[in-house]
């Protein structure tokens, strides 16, 4: 009889002393499990942490024991997964590139295609806490302060915490910050602004607000070709149109697009159909591949 079953099924019946001794002896002499206990691999020695960027944010230390031991590997995996999610989202007009020097710093640019900020090209930098995703919300700072109620007129920082007051791991993601940064230029929010002047003008003098927005867009465009503020091989930079360089790239892009469109068209035309064009009768289309 299985001793565990006896203990659960007949718990109301007191076992004789000899029976209890026999059960204890059986339990003590039972062979150990053949399957080894699952353990995390040992942490390699002399592991160098990820280089921290020159971020204006103060970093907080993680209280998670596993994160503390496997910090560099866990952080790199988390950031790689976050960037993969960004690529899959395909946010229109938003482009980002992680820094070469540090995975905790991402360079980006937003193209505004319609609305009050139309034709705006705004470069920014995202600073990620070194205890991500357990720490505070990442910060997004524009290279030049933009005239906007949610953008600090001095530092150029976007009020990201408005949408993410508390960063929740496995629920909040960096692509959501990018989507929020894009949306604020199409849907203006004036509640608790970082730039009170901008909020007041939007509410009371929309024409003056539009004028200042246009000046801000022109200012950013005039500095579009400036060298990046942070020296990094992955920093996003723009250069004036050079036919000797850009014409060839442009032709390759257009040729590839035409090829993709033609391939999609051929795929649609060559789809299997047994209905003759202009008819609604099934199996009315002749199969020319079969011998007649």
TrEMBL record:
Ranges for region Disordered: 1-46, 257-292
Ranges for domain UBC core: 74-222
Q: What is its main location?
A: membrane
Where is this protein found? Answer: Cell membrane; Cytoplasm
Residues making up the signal peptide according to the UniProt record = none
Per UniProt, which keywords does this protein have?
A: Apoptosis, Cell membrane, Cytoplasm, Membrane, Protein transport, Transport
List where Polar residues composition bias occurs. Answer: 1-11
The membrane topology noted for this protein in its Swiss-Prot or TrEMBL record is:
Peripheral membrane protein
Compositionally biased spans, kind Basic and acidic residues: 14-23
Q: Which GO biological process entries does UniProt record here?
A: apoptotic process; early endosome to late endosome transport; endosome organization; endosome to lysosome transport; lysosome organization; protein localization to perinuclear region of cytoplasm; protein transport
Instruction: Note whether Nucleotide-binding occurs among the keywords.
Output: no
Q: Name one GO cellular component term.
A: plasma membrane
The keyword DNA repair is annotated on this UniProt entry: no
Protein's UniProt name: AKT interacting protein
Q: Which organism is it from?
A: Pseudonaja textilis
What lineage is on file?
Answer: Eukaryota, Metazoa, Chordata, Craniata, Vertebrata
Gene this protein is translated from: AKTIP
């Amino acid at each position: 009889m299985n001793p565990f079953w006896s203990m659960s099924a007949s718990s109301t019946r007191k076992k004789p002393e000899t029976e209890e001794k026999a059960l204890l002896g059986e339990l003590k002499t039972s062979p150990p499990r053949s399957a080894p206990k699952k353990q995390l691999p040992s942490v390699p020695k002399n592991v160098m942490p990820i280089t921290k960027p020159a971020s204006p944010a103060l970093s907080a230390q993680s209280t998670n024991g596993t994160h503390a031991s496997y910090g560099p590997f866990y952080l790199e995996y988390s950031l790689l997964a976050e960037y993969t999610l960004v690529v899959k989202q395909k946010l229109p007009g938003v482009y980002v590139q992680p820094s070469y020097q540090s995975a905790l710093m991402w360079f980006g640019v937003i193209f505004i295609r319609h609305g009050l900020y139309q034709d705006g090209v705004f470069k920014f930098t995202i600073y990620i806490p070194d205890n991500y995703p357990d720490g505070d919300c990442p910060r997004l700072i524009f290279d030049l302060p933009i005239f906007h109620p949610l953008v600090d007129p001095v530092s150029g920082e976007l009020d990201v915490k408005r949408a993410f007051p508390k960063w929740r791991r496995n629920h909040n993601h960096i692509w959501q910050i990018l989507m929020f940064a894009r949306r604020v230029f199409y849907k203006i929010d004036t509640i608790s602004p970082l730039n009170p002047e901008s909020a007041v003008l939007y509410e009371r003098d929309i024409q003056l607000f539009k004028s200042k927005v246009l000046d801000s867009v022109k200012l950013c465009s005039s500095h579009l070709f400036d060298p990046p503020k942070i020296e990094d091989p992955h920093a996003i930079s723009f250069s004036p149109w050079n036919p000797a360089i850009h014409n060839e790239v442009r032709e390759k892009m257009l040729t590839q697009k035409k090829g993709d469109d033609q391939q999609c068209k051929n795929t649609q035309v060559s789809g299997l159909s047994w209905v003759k064009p202009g008819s609604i009768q099934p199996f009315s289309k002749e199969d020319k591949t079969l011998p007649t």
